[in-house]
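Query form — protein Sigma-70 family RNA polymerase sigma factor

QUESTION: What is the three-dimensional structure of this chain?
INPUT:
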Amino acid sequence: MSLDQLIESCKINDTKAQSELYKLFSSKLFAVCLKYSRNYAEAEDNLQDAFLIIFKKIDQYKSKGSFEGWLKRVTINTVLQQYRNEKVFEIVNENIIDEVEIDIDEDTLSIDYLLRIIQELPDRYRLVFNLYVLDGYSHKDIASMLGINIGTSKSNLARARQILKQTIEDYKTTHSLQSL
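ANSWER: The structure tokens for Sigma-70 family RNA polymerase sigma factor are given below.
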């Protein structure tokens, strides 16, 4: 069955087609959920919620553009809605901090470590960081998606970078002292 046929079958609530679509895209969408969630269990819950919404709204997909891109947008919006409902962004700091450069030494820092420290960022910083740095959204788009203003998006990104830089510097100091 082609992807287009699968989508059409999902539009008429064919449970076999829905199961097949889930099998096809769940691992990619789980990676998206994991990036925006606080932990693994929350990412699993978010994936299930995202698929419920995908199946509910699949008739809105009009075969224009990438289906996978549409799935990713629905998934991100599902996860972000949870944070909007929790009022994660109520603390507003409009002070724009200078752009922070993060020096990453690939020999000392593993990708797992980097992903872990990003996931440990406070929600408002992690979400903006992921949307801007990892998924390439503009501050205007982020502000719209999260219900915040552009200045808050910029401020939260700068703060996320500061926290990550400090965490990496602390890690490097600790590990260089251990090797002495």
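ADDITIONAL NOTE: The chain has two domains: 3-85, 111-178.
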